[in-house]
């Protein structure tokens, strides 16, 4: 960091042009189109807006989208933590491969994971054939949606918790153990406080991604009326009926959720940094 | 602490991590490894294996002949075309944004970073919807576009715009932390010694960021070729004309043409695997880990 008091003039060229190009491109591709959605919604009259976003079908879809995303994010918090812990603390054959494959959901197209999951969890699929006799139906149920959302959210939790776990000071653990602390006590009082901000950030990232997810869900959802219809699918239905205003209203709801999530993630990160500074 | 240990062991045990050698620690360790790997296997490895198993269900000849289908060929062509336009544009944007953000201090920088990341938080369906609202038949510019016989939505330009929106942050996100970490010193030295801006970029900056740049471009490309939701909204699903590979997968799947659907899916899966391999190589080379 430069000393602000005796700041030298920056000799590197290109500030004006790069900032100009960045803001122009950003406005053209991202900001203007997004504001079109906001303005389109603002043009709706209030009762029509409410009628669209509070219709029973829309409410059922929010319940499903939020519920499944929440469960998926919770599952990811538990297993994602276990995975991150395994990768950071243990040495085992194939650890490098496992570490690399974690990012798979980032790179794999959602339509591909969607049809693959549906095939596996269908009644005659690799996993489905053992679950169906036990009365557990995954494909074409809310449970299937949750499985798909768990898949796409998993790397978010692992990748945020992993660096935080590396930060945990081993000497603190050693000191605690020397002083007679049990394993669970150490976990609760040293490890959890250190990784908590990262864990919550990962949870929120996974949740935010899951709420808006479309591709990997629609295949395994079965899209039964009022039962397994996610909110993004309702937007598609509105568009197919050329009801742009209705689609915009539902899109606006989803966009607002995205903004709240973004805000939550930023606040969590600020909180995490502050905690880290206090503990040092 | 569980596990009896003889007096001779005590010193050695304190030297390693406490409790490391105890029976319970070993149990916990293997339990956690098993649970994690089972979770990963069921959720990630099994779907990936299923793609190839389904694609090859009726043998290699059926697999290869599914690429002879005209609609499938058209979808591959369209995907390649869209990616060939989107990826270079987003690469130029990513480098420009990263230069601006990492080399200079200015007000509103953190807002700019947040806005660049914004598309990652938006639902893919909403990403497509915004362009339909702008350029669709009932959209803002819809009437004007129709008058002048220009089609954006349900045509290639719409697919390109939606794909661009979705993959917008990838190159920039890869480069910004990398360039911030590398600092300005070498560029300042080059400029002070009389090098021009372009010369400095190509001879000083680019060699140092090239691995991060390569990964950013590859990831951007994988996302561009695989985008489904946003493209599905703007494409209108016109066979042979506006179907990208992911949309073709959906169409074939809905027609119960499983070999065809999974054959196309296998190509995109190979692309994803290649992307991850390159990522691992890049991280090995730079020793730099993204967060």
Radius of gyration of chain A: 23 Å
Question: Helix/strand-derived class of chain A?
Answer: mainly alpha
Q: State Rg of chain B.
A: 25 Å
Q: Tally of extended strands of chain B?
A: 0
Outline the low-pLDDT stretches of chain A: 1-7
Architecture per CATH nomenclature, i.e. the level-2 architecture of the largest domain in chain B: Orthogonal Bundle
Spans where pLDDT lies below 50 across 5 or more residues of chain B? 1-5
The residue-averaged pLDDT of chain B reads 88
In CATH, what is the class of the largest domain in chain B?
A: Mainly Alpha
Main sheet overview of chain A: none
What's the tally of helices of chain B? Answer: 14
- Multimeric organization: heterodimer
Biggest sheet of chain B, in brief? none
Overall shape of chain B: it is: globular
Number of helices of chain A: 13
What is the CATH top level name of the largest domain in chain A? Mainly Alpha
Question: What distance separates the N and C termini of chain B?
Answer: 35 Å
| The named CATH superfamily of the largest domain in chain B | MetI-like
Report the principal-axis shape of chain A: globular
SS-derived structural category of chain B: mainly alpha
How would you sum up this structure, described in words?
The complex is a heterodimer of chains A (280) and B (291). Chain A contains 13 helices and no strands. Chain A is mainly alpha-helical. Chain A has 2 domains: 15-44; 55-279, MetI-like (MetI-like fold, Orthogonal Bundle). In chain A, helix 6 (110-121) crosses helix 8, helix 6 (110-121) runs parallel beside helix 11 (215-221) and helix 8 packs antiparallel against helix 11. Chain A is globular and about 70 Å long. Chain A starts with 14 loop residues before the first helix and ends with a helix. The model of chain A is unreliable at 1-7 (pLDDT under 50). Chain B is mostly helical. Chain B has 2 domains: 7-54; 59-286, MetI-like fold (Orthogonal Bundle). Helix content of chain B is 77%, strand content 0%. Chain B has 14 helices and no strands. The longest helix of chain B has 34 residues, at 70-103. The radius of gyration of chain B is 25 Å and the shape is globular. Chain B starts with 6 loop residues before the first helix and ends in a 5-residue tail after the last helix. The chains are: A mainly alpha (280), B mainly alpha (291). Chains A and B meet through helix 1, helix 3, helix 4, helix 5 and helix 6 of A and helix 2, helix 4, helix 5, helix 6 and helix 8 of B.
